[in-house]
Amino acid sequence: MLVGQNEGQSCGVVADIERCHRRRYKNGSNFFDYPRTPIGLKKLNISLATFETYLKRSGTKYAAADHLTIADFPLVTATLCLEAIGFSLDEYPLVKAWYGNFKQQHPDLWAIGEAGMKEITEFEKNPPDLSGMNHPIHPIRKKN
C-alpha cells in the first residue's frame, strides 16, 4: 500500500521540505550559478527541523504511515542529495533514523537512489562545464 492515513496531512510538509532540500540548497549549485548562501542553509535547517517535528508528532515509521508511502519518495530523493554533498543529519536524529530505515528496509529501492546519489557526488566534485549553454531561465556558471 502506498497511501497512508496521514497522507493528506503530510503532503504540504513533504512539498516544502523537498523543495528546500533539493532545489534551494543543493542541485542548482552544481549545474547553474546559484551559490549556496547562509540564508539557503537556514531555510534548509528550518525544513529539516520541521520534518523532525513532524516525525516526532506523527510517531510513524515513515513520513505518512508505518509503511512506505508515496510521501517518502521525494523526501528520500531530497535527503540523498544532502548525503551526496556531505551534509550531516546528526542534528536531526528522527530524520536520520527515518532515512537509515528506508535504506535498510528497502535495499532494492535504495540501490536505485544510491546510483543517482553517486552521480550527484561526482557532479559535486567535478561540476559540468555548461558555459556554452544559453539557458532561458537559469543563470549559467562561468568557467574560471
How would you describe the overall organization of this protein?
Keywords: Transferase. With about 140 residues, this protein is an all-alpha fold. It has one domain: Glutathione S-transferase Yfyf (Class Pi), Chain A, domain 2 (Up-down Bundle), CATH 1.20.1050. Helix content is about 65%, strand content about 0%. It is built from five helices and no strands. The N and C termini lie far apart (about 50 Å).
Tell me briefly what this model is.
The protein has 144 residues and is mostly helical. The protein is built from five helices and no strands.
What's the CATH architecture name?
Up-down Bundle
Segments where pLDDT lies below 50 for 5+ residues?
1-11
* Subunit organisation of the chains: single chain
Taking the sheet with the most strands, its summary is:
none
Taking Cα atoms only, what radius of gyration do you get, to the nearest Å? 16 Å
Record field, number of beta strands: 0
Number of alpha- plus pi-helical segments: 5
What's the CATH topology label?
Glutathione S-transferase Yfyf (Class Pi), Chain A, domain 2
Q: Rough shape?
A: globular
Counted up, domains total: 1
Helix and strand run: HHHHH
Q: How far apart, in Å, are the first and last alpha carbons?
A: 50 Å
